[in-house]
Amino acid sequence: MPGSCIIVIPCLNEARHIGPLLAQLLPSSRRLGALVVVADGGSEDATRNIVSAVAADNPDVVLIDNPRRLQSAAVNLAVSRFGGSAEYLIRIDAHGGYPDDYCDRLIKDAHDTGADAVVVSMLTRGSGIVQRAAAAAQNSRLGTGGSKHRHSSLGEWIDHGHHALLRVDAFSAVGGYDESFSHNEDAELDHRLKQAGFRIWLSGRTQMTYFPRNSLKGLYRQYLGYGRGRARNLLKHRLVPKLRQMVPLMVFPAALVAMLTPLHWLFAPPLALWAAICLAYGGRLAWRAGDPKLALAGVSAMVMHFAWSLGFWQQMVGAGVRGRPA
Q: Does some domain include residue 180?
C-alpha cells in the first residue's frame, strides 16, 4: 500500500539532474507503493519548479522545504512528516547515478537478510579531466584506504557504508541523523545503530555511481568538511581512528614539520615521500589505463589527503580550545 516506503531526495540547485532522476524513480515507486519526498534546501535555480510540475501529475511525489539545508535535516524532516506508516526509508542523492531497479533490490536485500540498514558500494565516475582524475583517485586504495563500500561487494555485514535503505523503526529508535553534523552524518548514525544492536548489510545486488567535484577547489572544500566530520564523530563517541585513517591524518602535521626544512633537511622527507607516493600512484593509474591525463589522479589524492587531514586537526584543536568534545 502507498506509504509502506518513503524515498527521500535531499537537494539544492539540482535543476540539471532532478527531472531525469524523478522520471527514473517513478516506475519503481509505483511498484513499491512508495512516496517520493524531495526536500529542497532553498534552490535558486529551476529545481523547485521542476519538482512541482512532476508532483502536479504524480500524487506520490511531494516537495517540502528544508530550511536547515543539510542532508541530515532533510531526511529527518521527511521521516517525521511521512514516515509514520512506512516500513522502509530509501535515501537518494540527487547528484548520483542509479540502476532502474535500485530501490527494488534494496528492499529485496532487506527482506532476504533481515538487515536493519542496507548500504551500497559507491563507485565514482567523471567526464572532464579533473573529474575523471578525482574519480580514479576515489576508486583507488590510495584515495579510500580500502574502505569496503568504495569497492564492489558480493554482499556482507559491515560497520559502515553509503546509506541507501534503513528500516524506519531502527532509524527512529536511535533518533535519526545528528543534525549538528554537516558531513559524516552517515558514519555517525551507523555507529549508533551498531551500538543499539542493529545490523548493517552491504548489498551485493546493486550499487550507485557518484560524480565527484569537477575542480580541485571543490574537491578540497569537500574533503575539508569530511575531515571535520570524522573528527566530530571520533570525539562524540570517544573512538580511535582506524589504521587506514591514521596515515592520511599525518599529512598536515608533516606539512607543518616541512616548514622547518630551512633549519635542517631532515624535516622535509616525510612530506616529500608522501607526495612522491601519490604522484607515482597517479602515474601508475595513467599507465595501466593508457591515458596520460589520469596522472592527475595523484594530485587529486594529494588534495583529498591534505584537506581531510587539515579539517580533522582543525576540528580537534577547536574542540580542545572550546573545552568540549565536539
A: yes
- Condensed to tens digits (0 to 9), the pLDDT of residues 289-319 reads 999 999 999 999 999 999 999 999 999 998 7
Counted domains in the chain:
2
Distances (CA, A) of 253 to 160, 258, 310, 314: 27, 9, 9, 11
Q: pLDDT tens digits for 122-149?
A: 888 888 899 999 999 988 888 776 566 6
Final residue belonging to a domain, choices 187, 212, 237: 212
Residue 3: predicted pLDDT: 44
Q: Do 222 and 174 reside in the same domain of the chain?
A: no
Q: Rounded to 10 degrees, what is the CA torsion of 149, 155, 157, 162?
A: 30
Q: Domain of 152: which CATH number?
A: 3.90.550.10
Residue type, 105: R
The answer on 153 and 263 residing in a single domain is: no
Nearest of 12, 10, 207 to residue 92 by alpha carbon: 10
| Amino acid present at 130 | V
Segments forming the whole domain that contains residue 307: 217-322
